[in-house]
Structures are given as C-alpha cells and as structure tokens.
Design a protein that fits this description.
It is built from 10 helices and 12 strands. With about 270 residues, the protein is of the alpha/beta class. The chain has one domain: NAD(P)-binding Rossmann-like Domain (Rossmann fold), CATH 3.40.50.720. The strands form 5 sheets. The chain has a 4-stranded parallel β-sheet with strand order 3-4-5-10, sandwiched between helices. The chain has a two-stranded parallel sheet with strand order 1-2. A two-stranded parallel ribbon has the order 6-9. The relative contact order is 0.14.
C-alpha cells in the first residue's frame, strides 16, 4: 500500500518511474511516465531492465511473510538490490528502515532492518536510510493491528509489550519524507530517524483510536504474554497474518524512539 501511495506522489510530480514487481497485474492504471517491469528481487537476472537509466532507487522491501529464515532472505534481497544499483550507475538509494537503538538486544525483525541498511551503504551507492517506528495509516500492518484490536475488543488483557515506547509517524508525513529525500543535499551516507513529535506506546495509540471512534475500551495489564501466544491471539481478532504478527510483537519489546534530530537539519530546507 505504501508503495502505491508513493508511486502516485511521484507521478504527480512528473517523475519518470520504473517499477519492479513480481505481480504487474497489481499495478494498474499507472501514469504515462511509469513503466512496470516484472521481476523478482531474489533473482538478479530478472531485475536488470528495471534499473536502466535510474538515478534514484527506493528500497521498500521486507520478507515478514516468510515463515523461515526471513532475515537471510532480506539480506539476499538487499545484496541483489545493492549490486544492481551499483552496476547500473544509480546515484542514490532511499531506504525505509526501522528505529531501534543498535546497542539494545534488538528483535530479529528490527535487527534485520538495520542490517539491510548497512548492506545498502556498503554498496558504494550514496544511501539515505530513513528509520521509522509505527506508521499510522491504511495499509500499515502495525496500524491494522491497532485498529482491529480496538474495534473488536471492549475489554483487553494487555501484555507488557503494549507499554513499550514508540514514536509513530503518519503515513502522509512519511510520504513527504520519502519524496523530499530525492532532493536532500548529501555528501555521504545518512541515517535519519523520523517520527511524530511525541513518543507513544501501542496502548496509548489504542486508547487514542478508541477516543477518536467514540469507543469505550478497558485495558487490564498482565505481566506476561509471550510473542507466540500474542500472535495466535491476534490471528483470531485481527487480519494480520500470525507469522507477521509474531515478528512485529517481538519487535515491540524494543523502544523505537527518535534519539537524534538529524532530520530537522537535513529536511529543513525542503
């Protein structure tokens, strides 16, 4: 969903766009300046045409739906993308990664997100890595989880992960960052943390969502509820795939808040 929204934003600004996708039929009604290429990021030979003539390449890939070895597949995807970008003469890579202090014991999902950023930077192509927390908006897996839980459960038994601090960002603000990243002046690689003004937990977000919808919701914290049990519980209440839900919940144990204000410097002039 984010990819399609970004495509519309870029088309509206008159950019010439190459889209690489495994399923071209899912990209209908594209603009006249958009060319859709069928390919698989896990197969380098299928990617070559899409990279020709490209100045800036967006990397918006994750493998959370993979049941096994998703981290290895994400690394392979990043390596293939980096190789193609370097070989084709791409000048800049823009990557949407994840917040989280590298010194913490990061979950596999968050660690993989940051490992991907490292691989892209090591490609030799100038890389701008945007690190974000929860994205608020239609199509965001985290937001869909919050929405479904709040809509369907008047009374919630909430595990500890519901209280972990995060720094949500609205999908419109995220799109603005992604579009503006095309023109940010850079001399080298940049890792930029982005988010809203104030940290909030998943619990805070569920309470705010309930308030906006006029719903009365009661939350009862409990000291333990494992990611595995939580993901199975989610599979009954939400539309989020339990495989994906488990990885997301494992990541929620880590605070995902902004620790530097580099974004305010880089994006101030845009």
């Amino acid at each position: 969903m984010l990819e399609k929204k970004l495509l519309r934003q870029l088309e509206g600004r008159g950019h010439q766009i190459n889209c690489l996708t495994r399923n071209p039929e899912k990209l209908k009604n594209t603009g006249k300046n958009t060319t859709v290429y069928q390919g698989d990021i896990m197969a380098r030979s299928s990617m070559w045409r899409a990279f020709q003539g490209v100045d800036t390449a967006y990397f918006l890939v994750h493998m959370l739906h993979e049941k096994e070895a998703f981290e290895i597949k994400e690394i392979q995807a990043a390596q293939n993308f980096a190789f193609m970008a370097r070989t084709a003469g791409v000048k800049r890579i823009i990557y949407l990664g994840a917040l989280g202090n590298e010194k913490d014991n990061l979950s596999p999902h968050l660690r993989s997100r940051q490992d991907v950023g490292y691989i892209l930077r090591e490609s030799g192509v100038q890389t701008l890595e945007l690190r974000a927390s929860i994205v608020i908006g239609k199509g965001s897996l985290s937001f869909e989880m919050i929405r479904d839980l709040t809509e369907h459960l008047p009374f919630m038994i909430t595990p500890r992960w519901v209280s972990t601090p995060a720094q949500p960002i609205g999908i419109r603000d995220l799109l603005n960052y992604l579009v503006q990243s095309l023109n940010i002046p850079m001399q080298q690689h940049e890792t930029v943390e982005i988010g809203g003004n104030n940290p909030m937990s998943y619990g805070d977000l569920m309470r705010e969502y309930a308030a906006q919808r006029g719903l009365k919701r009661i939350m009862l914290p409990v000291p333990v509820l494992s990611p595995r049990l939580s993901s199975r519980w989610l599979s009954f209440i939400t539309h989020v795939d339990p495989v994906v839900g488990k990885k997301l919940i494992e990541g929620i144990r880590n605070p995902t808040v902004i620790e530097n204000r580099r974004a305010e410097v880089l994006f101030r002039a845009c």
